[in-house]
Amino acid sequence: MDVQKIISELQFKAVRSSGAGGQNVNKVSSKVILTFDLSQSQALSEEEKLVLETKLQSRLTSENILSLQCDEDRSQLKNKSIVIKRFLNLIEQGLVIPKPRKATKIPKSAIKKRLKDKKNTSEIKKTRGKFGF
Known about the structure:
There is one protein chain. The protein has a domain at 3-95: Double Stranded RNA Binding Domain, CATH 3.30.160. It is elongated, with a radius of gyration of 29 Å. A three-stranded antiparallel sheet has the order 1-2-3, with helices on one face. It is an alpha+beta fold. The chain has four helices and three strands.
């Protein structure tokens, strides 16, 4: 995965931010929307695209376009850097393949100890009963 190549494929759009903000909110386009076309990407291999397609399925549109937005800051540049960091983090986490779990076998000594303890508990409980003389 070439980070610089991926960043060059990103498309940004600046939009007016919603919500409260005073007099500045209606004049400044500080909200940044990042779009990334996963199927047309040259920076990712076909295997990486397939992995990301399955892992990010809920975040992708029907055309395999990933869209992220940020309006946390009043500065467009800061919002752009925040959304790029989020995007790269999302891609890195999506490409991580977890190690397969190896099933472990229970040791024979542990099985014997458990059965011995059960037997001991059973004997203790048997002695608690009433004896018929």
